[in-house]
Amino acid sequence: MHITIVAVGQKLPAWAQTAVDDYLARFPRDFTVIVKEVKAEARTGGKPVAQVMAAEAERIERAVPAGDILVAMDEHGRDMTTVDFSKKISGWKNEGCGVTFIIGGADGPTSIYLTAILAPELLGPIAVAAYSYMALVPVIQPPIMRMLTSEKERKIKMRQLRPVSKTEKILFPLIITVIIALLLPSAAPLVGCLMLGNLMKECGVVDRLSKTVQNELMNIVVIFLGLTVGATATAEAFLNPRTLFILVLGVIAFAMGTAGGVLLAKVMNFFSKGDNKINPLIGSAGVSAVPMAARVSQTEGQKADPSNFLLMHAMGPNVAGVVGSAVAAGILLSFLG
Questions:
Q1: What separation in angstroms does the CA of 93 have from each of 3, 30, 71, 78, 111?
Q2: Which of 13, 28, 57, 72 has its CB surrounded by the most CB atoms within 10 Å?
Q3: CA distance 169 to 4
Q4: Is 78 helix (H, G, I), strand (E, B) or coil?
């Protein structure tokens, strides 16, 4: 009997290939098992999901031997025990049938479900690490900000922000959503939810819904999020060296994000003229800890000059950090999903 496994994806890493070879060697001699890797369609350039899946479907079809029974491996399919699966294989063998198992690409279920599939055991540690860093923004960021700036730079006063019309406020979330949906579809749900809340607040015609989303609904979501994430934080998953490694990586990433924002603001000042100078402290607000990072920029600025008000200037990169995080999540989902 021959069994063919057609899998969409990139070349397996060495450790995974070793495991595959080990299991293939355990098959009886009257079984021939062949693994065929099908190149995944690029998920960049704003390609629609349907187009990506159609291209991969053609490649899968070409890889399937003629006359084989096809079995699609899908998370929504029927669960089988090992005993039931072995009986199924024996039945196909007795009938003299060849079987092809198809493992498709990343598109299908929602991005949240896919994230849980990729590393569900790390959901608790990563969530705790992420929110811990947000709470520790006033502790982590100030030393980095002071180390990379001079007192003169911290005293820079930025020009008054221009008034923004109601039309601009309404068009902004719509334009951002359309651009992200076209360039990076996988990030569209994340950015779309963010921009929907912004639109509800700025349009002025759904005030009751806007207040509900900001208060009651937000509190309910936070409660359920905490419960579901907390339920995954078992002792076995949490109290191990891997969790410590995640925490260390998080600190490094947070510090690099803070330093990168400050340094980029300093670089921009080389090209700024007159009173268009940027206070480098607002660059540290580019992380997605809203509005804590912006408050830290304001606090550090007032320590250097009590008459300096940077809060609203810092909210710009702070919100940009939120959008950037959503886009980065979409990119990672496209490449690693």
A1: 10, 10, 15, 21, 38
A2: 57
A3: 55
A4: coil
Contacts 24+ apart (CB under 8 A), 218-221: none
Number of alpha carbons in the 13 Å side-chain half-sphere of residue 289: 27
Give the pLDDT confidence score for residue 183 in this predicted structure: 84
Amino acid present at 302 = Q
**What is the 8-class DSSP label of residue 10?**
S
Residue from 79, 85, 99, 107 nearest 8 by CA: 107
The series of mean pLDDT values per 10 residues for the chain, 337 residues long, is 78 68 80 81 62 75 80 70 82 80 52 44 68 80 94 89 89 92 81 88 90 89 81 74 81 89 92 85 86 89 90 88 77 67
List phi, psi (to 5°) of 76.
-95, 5
End-to-end CA distance of the chain: 33
Name the residue type at position 113: Y
Question: Taking every pair of C-alpha atoms in the chain, what is the biggest distance, in angstroms?
Answer: 86
Token pair belonging to 271:
């090209």
Measured CA to CA, the distance from residue 317 to residue 298 in angstroms comes to 13
Backbone phi, psi, residue 153, to 5°? -70, -35
Residue whose C-alpha is closest to residue 65's, from 87, 34, 39, 25: 34
Tokens linked to 53: 């899946």
Nearest one of 277, 243, 1 to 126, comparing CA atoms: 243
Sign of CA dihedral 293, 295, 301, 304: negative
Tokens of 213: 């989303």
Question: What pLDDT score does 1 carry?
Answer: 80
